[in-house]
Records
---
Amino acid sequence: MAGQFSDRYGRIKTMFSAALLFLIGGLIILVSWNFTTMIIGRLITGVGVGIGLAVDPLYISEISPKSKRGSLVTLSEFAINIGILLGFISNFVFSYFDDSFSWRLMLLPGVICPVIMIYLSCFVMCESPRFLMK
């Protein structure tokens, strides 16, 4: 689905849409009042993350010079793993708070920071030459 969407509307719009889905799903999780609502939010978040993870290496490989392509995609994957580590660290820090709201606090840095970065980067990134040629 992400490949077809990015081929039709562009890599930048697809990444922006993925960030929007990620934000909407995260906000639904943050305000969820029961288990079903939380699962719906998690499903929307998962779709956003999946689309972003599919289009990000594609965009990087299309926009980067041939000599730097592998290292830039590798750095992107490395940054994803650093983000996962930071998520575990924030979960550990927030685990000492009250159980009634600590799980909501755990989601805040993991939702807000990536969405802000993706949103801001969409304004400075140009569309990939391959998409423009199509």
---
Amino acid sequence: MSEALVLDVRNLAVHYRIARPGGGQTLLRAVEDASFGVRRGQTLGIVGESGSGKSSIARALLRLVPAAGGTARFRDADLLALQGEALRAARRHVQMIFQDPLASLDPRMTVEDIIGEPLRVYARGLSRTQRRAEVLAMMQRVGLAAEHLPRFPHEFSGGQAQRIGIARALIVKPDVVVCDEPLSALDVSIKSQISNLLKDLQQQLGLALLFISHDLAAVRFSCDDVLVLYLGRVMEIASRDALFARPRHPYSRALLQAVPIPDPVAARARRATVLQGELPSPLTPPSGCVFRTRCPLADELCARQAPPAQRTETGVVACHRPLES
């Protein structure tokens, strides 16, 4: 992941202060020491169970929540340190596609106003006619028609609403697009349409995508590299093909083996590693390796010391006993 990095994140930490029932506050370490890069024209997938910190990474990079530490280098600047006009200008180049398409659209605005709003903010020199031409061109790219311009969000299906959200994100020609579970609210048949649309737009526009999902089938189709997250810590980073063929971290293997197989014979023959127990609370994470309480390979060293991230022939893995390739 070293060539043509458009976004280089190092040691990202995201903490929240949570009120205690009896008074006072406690610290929730949602993300800790996460490092990764996103390449131009490529897609990095972030996977993990609910509560692993995937959305906290997205919100921190978009400056929707403050980062407790780390850097995010973009265009020779640290996104996490920008303020005022510099931050406002950078936001044009880092956009987001949201999980719930209808909830992310203002129900009082027409499609023309929704897609054109970023242009009113970042391209103030455009006349109304020019702005409409830009909106129409982007609508055509995402599969919408001119007749949709005066309509309101409630008049569209979930897939059409997500196309509107994609058009709104891309209208200002960003470099990086953060996709936070962009398919989870859609029907199965619509998911494939939106997945193909995102890949086509990425190739046309040279976008760098950060694709957050719990759907490993969508990740396998859409992503070039994959980051596996558990309780806010990076377990493994590898290319898509390497991760799905030979995961090096026990958690990565357990996630992949939990994916259903349509062939019942193959499913019965598969020896799956079943994760025991629930995801621990991030308020009281286990000592040492945070995955050790559910890991079939954990030993005394795992309880005493957090494993450092180490490079392997397939990528990066944080494990005292990485699986053989």
---
Amino acid sequence: MTWIHRIRGGIIALLRPKRAEQELDDELRAFLDASVEHKVQSGMRREDATRAARLELGSHTSVKDAVRDAGWESWVESVWRDITYAGRSFRRSPGFTVVAVLTLGVGIGATTAIFSVVHGVLLKPLPYLDSGRIVRLYMNMPAAESPSKRPGG
């Protein structure tokens, strides 16, 4: 299956979940029928072939869940459900929402300010030509000894 078909199928599953569910049911039914026919042609009775095919396929619900979880649209749907749940929770407790938003704002603002200072002072090169050759010269002057610490004094 090409990536275009996967994207198309995912969009259909997100926008029209009943249609996607019906397509999945039809596909599973067709697979089961084909498996039964193959077993009947190999010499099994129809009842035994149907039972064997259903045992091979497994639970209809678990197969559908596995197929749904394999696609990217299940991740998008899960994220969307989490966002709507968070929105409902924030609406129910506005005090917590204000504290959370203010905390995030202060944290993001402080991080931006610290990064701006670090970038300007430590990471950005100095605004001079050939700034790698700039050196700092200094001279250490020994402290003058006090008269009380002189030998013999």
---
Amino acid sequence: MTWPSSNTLIATVTSAGLMAGVAASWATITATGEGKSGTPAIAVSNAPAGGHIYYTATTGLDINPGTLASPFKTIAKGASVLQPGDTLYIRGGTYAETLDNNIPSGTSWASPVTVSAYPGETVIVQPAATLIVRFDNPASYVVLANLILDGTKMTALNPCVYINNRYGTGNPNHIRFTGGEFRNCASNGLLIEASLASPTPDYNEIINVKVHDNGRLDPPNTKLPHHGLYIQSSHNLITGCDIYNNPGLGVHIYKDNAVNGVDASYNTVSNNKVHDNAKSGWRGHGIILSGGDRNVAYNNLIWNNQGGIQVDYNASNTSVYNNTIYANNANRGSAGIDLGSSVGARNTTIRNNIVYGNTAGDIKTGSATHTVADHNTLNATNPLFVNAASHDFHLMTGSPAIDAGLAVTGVATDFDGIHRPQGAGYDIGAYEYVQP
């Protein structure tokens, strides 16, 4: 990109067409091919005030200006200069740092503060400390992109990522993790904890993150296994993640109604792979949606956990749509979909799900009330997966799930992003059948 000053800079163009890291209101983009310049085009950047880009590298110095040629050495130093709309790119390497309430706030998703791995380079944050990332300050509109948060050297039984409102004077919210990994954490990969009734740490996003091999292997029959993601607040999004090899549950959304009067409500869990959890051998559904109102799970692939999806503990108006739930209960445990093993769920809708090969059964309603379960393909009917052994749950020609579903508001595409429907009707499960 060529600017009025004739200096060439690197900018990031988002899928929405916004250019992050652009301070001017316009930019000239010149396309080149085979050594010939194309026609320049003017692109409006819609950049916020600021919009500066800084760099950190293991070879840098914190007395440097933080440019690409003269980067900072530490993430903390880079974070300290950020303002709304700014981006800190971290060059490849391993950083023994803790990001503990030291990332400032943005002002909106159009003007966030972004801390990101440099494009195409691997950044591992691996401190010898009690945790890796903590927000219990007033931070909001922060993006952490493509960072591998590795708890191998953690010194206490804490999560890798901890978001908490315990001080009340400044509630963290609108924190987005995109890409990267939460791995080898001492307890949960991520814990969003509502310690106070208000305000609660809501509207956070975990997008396209690998969450694996977290937590300690507790003895059988303990009630405290650790989980991949443990969320106690509302309006959070978990999408596009690969969640596996955690001792307890893959995704645990729950807040006891009796504690501070807080619910975990209006959360969305979609388009994730959730598999091979419950390493502790005692309990571990792929996903739990409990103790809140209007949580929704759709387009998830859930296999080889102790159970598939659990909706329980006074959960109300929960929606479970178009999930593929296969071969859970590898050791012992619950059914493909469980409702009401204790206090029970109310007004749950279970629709367009493939529930197959789960050894403890397909759908158990237990003490749940006012459940609607329809247009599901259950254990008695082989859904004809392309290759279940290799976890390819696309549908073969002739599958009974094809065109057998019902249109669901809000589920316009499948796990692959294919528009629904592809045929005469909506398909059941996470995938729409596409004619070869």
